[in-house]
Structure to design on (100 residues):
């Protein structure tokens, strides 16, 4: 999978498993947030995905008010390709997915 160009339409929204820090200037509804070690971040479900993910379509459910860090995440950029490769390799050998 990682040899193909990454595209969100063919991806399990792997970047939405990353720790997403939320800044004061972001406009994310409070019930989607968690606070840990003095930081504010997107809460995640029991399987590790951001709680704002629309799991029926595997896309952002708060697209218009998603955090700035999500807006800047580059499709097919090095970080995108890296997390997709790691996700793919974990799935391929059937071990538990890690949270980042
Ligand atoms: S930015 Fe990359 S990791 Fe995120 S959904 Fe798109 S292809 Fe997948
Ligand atoms: S806010 Fe949206 S784009 Fe950002 S991690 Fe959550 S579901 Fe993904």
């Amino acid at each position: 999978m990682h040899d193909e160009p990454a595209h969100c339409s063919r991806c399990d929204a792997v970047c939405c498993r990353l720790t997403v820090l939320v800044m004061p200037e972001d406009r994310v509804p409070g019930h989607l947030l968690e606070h840990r070690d003095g930081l504010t971040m997107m809460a995640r479900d029991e399987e590790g995905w951001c709680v704002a993910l629309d799991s029926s379509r595997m896309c952002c459910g708060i697209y218009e008010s998603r955090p700035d860090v999500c807006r800047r995440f580059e499709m097919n950029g090095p970080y995108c390709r890296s997390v997709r490769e790691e996700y793919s390799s974990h799935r391929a050998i059937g071990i538990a997915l890690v949270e980042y």
Observations:
- The chain has one domain: 8-92.
